[in-house]
Amino acid sequence: MDLQQQKVHIEKAQNFMRQYRDPESRELKKLSANQFMDVWSHYDRDGNGYIEGTELDGFLKEFVSSANATDLGPEKSSLTDEMLVELKSCFMEAYDDNQDGKIDIRELAQLLPMEENFLLLFRFDNPLESSVEFMKIWREYDSDNSGYIEADELKNFLRDLLKEAKKINDVSEDKLIEYTDTMLRVFDANKDGRLQLSEMAKLLPVKENFLCRQVFKLSAHTDCTSTPAPFATQEGRIDEEGAARLTKDDIEKVFSLYDRDNNGSIENEELRGFLKDLLELVKKDYDAQDLIEFEETILRGVGYDKEGKISRKELTMILLALAKQPPEDEQ
To answer: Residue 74: CB partners within 8 Å, gap ≥ 6?
Structure first.
């Protein structure tokens, strides 16, 4: 190990962020996809998909002190506890977009300078309007109908995503492979080398799960952020007392939200999108087979006629059955 390598090794041990600062200007250097993942993995020590609590304190301390020409070490740090509290408050106000008190991987991506193309994969200025659009994309890229987005299919998705974002196709095959590998490191929670439905849903966020709207009165056990964070595992359930207050107008609003083509029925990807949103209320880790089984269970309970679509009446039966509320003509 030469002198420069020894210096980097020591700095890395003392302050992980220091290695990414320019030695002269002290500005952060542009990170590659792999370097960004190294930073994320270093500070997300428990691997739960967030930098929070003492992890966040450690990141902020090292992020600030790495700008100094020399590392004072934690004992001599000029950052007092009071300063850290104020810094944390300002930092979270600027970067904690969903205001959950912790930093997810997309929020960190807005802070650290990265390769432009890789950064685009984390910038969802126009997230999908609904799970209906998500299911259309899932069907398109699950080209072999395996129920998973495998590495080659993910690479095709990322290529098209970058092409659409930049309106040009200037990403090399090697870079695409690097980005694909990195995205699998981020979103492949069970490490099987492919993305199941719930993992892809975290990569490609939907603006809103319609069934998380206030009218459904979800319990505190349900995580209903509009952009689900990577590796979330919290289970949820519908608050029956709240859902039992559903009205005809509420149900009509839900129907119109999923009947995207306004043809009077919810079918195909509209139906899959509705069921995906419904499944997310009770299960955060799910695959395509779970969705199929959930569909069979839910629709069997309302006497579904297997036409591949549901009407207003059938949607009403589903929602009221979940709320354990009888139809109005039985009340």
So the answer is: 61
Give how far the C-alpha of residue 257 lies from the chain's centroid of Cα atoms, to the nearest Å: 22
Q: Give yes or no for residue 325 having a pLDDT over 70.
A: no
Please list the residues that pair with 114 across neighbouring strands.
31
Residue 90 neighbours by CB under 8 Å, 6+ apart: none
- Helix, strand, coil shares, percent, the chain, to 5: 55, 5, 40
Type of residue numbered 19: Q
Residue 322 to residue 311: CA distance in whole angstroms: 17
Dihedral sign for Cα 231, 61, 181, 165, please: positive
> Do 112 and 17 contact (CB within 8 A), yes or no?
no
DSSP 195: E
- 239's CB contacts (< 8 A; 6+ apart) are 216, 217, 218, 219
Residue 323 near residue 181 (C-beta atoms within 8 A): no
Domains of the chain: 16-68+79-114 (1.10.238.10), 118-203 (1.10.238.10), 210-217+245-323 (1.10.238.10)
What pLDDT is recorded for position 119? 75
CA–CA separation, 54 vs 42, rounded Å?
13
User: Look-up: residue for tokens 């999908």?
Assistant: 128
Per the CB < 8 A criterion, the answer to whether 64 and 77 are in contact is no
Highest mean pLDDT among 21-25, 34-38, 148-152, 296-300: 148-152
Whether pTM exceeds 0.90: no
CA distance linking residue 267 with residue 273, whole number of Å: 9
Phi then psi for 195, rounded to 5 degrees?
-110, 125
Q: How far is CA 301 from the centre of its chain?
A: 31
Secondary structure E strands in 70-160: 149-150
122 sits in the region (left: phi over 0; alpha: psi -120 to 50; else beta) called alpha
Which 3 state secondary structure label does DSSP give 160?
helix
